[in-house]
Amino acid sequence: MADHTHRTGSRADAEPDVFRTDLLALLPQLRAFARGLCGRPEQADDLVQETVMRAWTARTSFAPGTSMKAWTFTILRNHFLNDLRKNKRNTQLDPEVAENTLVARATQEEGVHMNDLQRALDKLPEERREALLLVGAGGFSYEEAADICGVPIGTMKSRVARGRAQLHAILEPAGS
Amino acid sequence: MEPELTDSDPPKLEPTQDRGRKKGGSDRQPGWADGLRKLYDSVANEPLPDSFDDLLKKLDQADNG
What we know:
The complex is a heterodimer.
Chain A: H1 16-25, H2 27-38, H3 41-57, H4 68-89, H5 95-105, H6 112-123, H7 126-137, H8 142-149, H9 153-171
Helix pairs in contact in A: 2-3, 2-4, 3-4, 4-8, 7-9, 8-9
Chain B: H1 31-44, H2 55-64
């Protein structure tokens, strides 16, 4: 995929069409990140649409020449965390129930590996999951991922390392 | 998928415990490390669902509304 996101000199206020094209080009990646974060396809896509709307209305605050990918991922992430906090207060989304639902859905034999992985990912603490998604799958450097999550780079490295170890422990329990 | 890691600090595999994994090595890569990437790419490569058809319209409305 061509790297649209680092195009420089496209001032969002002066060239909304360029901005919009760049933004829409990021949709596949935003969907992938959102799906990894929340696991549920419809909810993930809603999150992406919200993100794009927010990015669009906030486009004048985008600094030209910086990574639009990192910028939109930050918006998506913050939006996701806000929703999560709200949901925790309003509905009682019992993690046990959510997990069992996922397990039930994943009982078909084919594609079990991917289901296992998504399920294992869902078990990780939020911050480790997003760290693995950003660095392990999304192609961000530790530094960029740390910026997106608003933490020091050392914290990001540690989250990735712990997330990897935990994922590994879930998927390949000792002795297997 | 895209070479965005050129500028700084490319993510290295952490030297975790005793596992001698090599970057990009397909030799003894545990399933999940590749799998995470595959999971992500599989979604990124999906065609956009119909629910995204209206997004362009919504963007325009956000401007005019």
